[in-house]
Amino acid sequence: MAFFSGLLTIALLLLGTGYLFHIPALLLLPADARISAAVMFLLIGFFHLVKPRKLTYMVEGMLPFPYLLVIVTGIMEMLLGAGLLFPGTWYYAGLGLIVLLVAMFPANIRVAVKQLPAPGGLPAKPWYTWSRLLFQPIYILWIWWAINQ
């Protein structure tokens, strides 16, 4: 939910800035959606790299080399997120992010099923960890829509 809140907030700020300052490029919703997704994935990827130990619990015992997996996913999130900012790469970066979101979904399921705390110090309550699963398809649809407009 925090990620979704970030997506919406950034997109609305971009749209509002476009209206306020008459910037036509920011009045295009798909562009705002791509930029907001880029910012959020850059932030999340950065968090993966700065505090990888805070995320390894999500895959420990499920996959080998959890520390390395957190680092690699962080790098991928940052590279693909940045790729959303450029017309020549945004489509392929978006597809890559969709694949990455699908690949990481089992870790989110594990957090909910095992009643582990949500990443990033977010609530560990079951309602929150389970509700996070509902947002993964929304992120995928957000990216798909943004790269196909």
TrEMBL record:
Keywords: Membrane, Transmembrane, Transmembrane helix. Coiled coil: none annotated. The chain crosses the membrane at residues 30-50, 62-84, 90-109, 130-147. This is DoxX-like family protein. It comes from Chitinophaga hostae.
